[in-house]
Amino acid sequence: MNKNEISNSFVSFSILSGTFAALASVFAKLFTDVRTFLIVQYLCNVIGNETFNCKEILNEIKEDTNWIMYFIRIFCFGSIFICNALMWTFFTKALNKSSSSLQVTILNSATNFCMTAILGNIIFGEMLSLQWWAGASLIVIGTLLVKSSYKDIESKNKTT
């Protein structure tokens, strides 16, 4: 395996790790949030009334004591642990493939930050201000600078 293949292999694991960390946060919010019903309503409408009797199901789950809401909350609670386990699995694999834990940590954190914001916007309708986009851009630029400067240091060490 050449140097380029090693570099690319840890990148995908780092991105997956950050994505699963963000998904764990989404499931934690769904577990505790009152808007979980709205998401169930949306999914029910997407699946269609032909598959399930959505109107009856939605009328039943408007009360938080319904077994369907309990099932959904238990599913979200379990998904927190599954996503965290996958996050740590991919993070460990990325650390194993990379020559530097700094690269893995920075890429993981940047991915987690961006995916959390994007998923928060898509799923929960959280607004992303211009200030957020400026900050996210600086994080991505910083990530690229650290990665490129690390490559420069590595190449200088090999030539000496």
TrEMBL record:
Residues 12-146 form the EamA domain. This is EamA domain-containing protein. Pfam families: EamA. Signal peptide: none annotated. GO terms for cellular component: membrane. Keywords: Membrane, Transmembrane, Transmembrane helix. The chain crosses the membrane at residues 67-90, 102-124, 130-150. The keyword Membrane applies. The lineage of its organism: Eukaryota, Fungi, Fungi incertae sedis, Mucoromycota, Glomeromycotina.
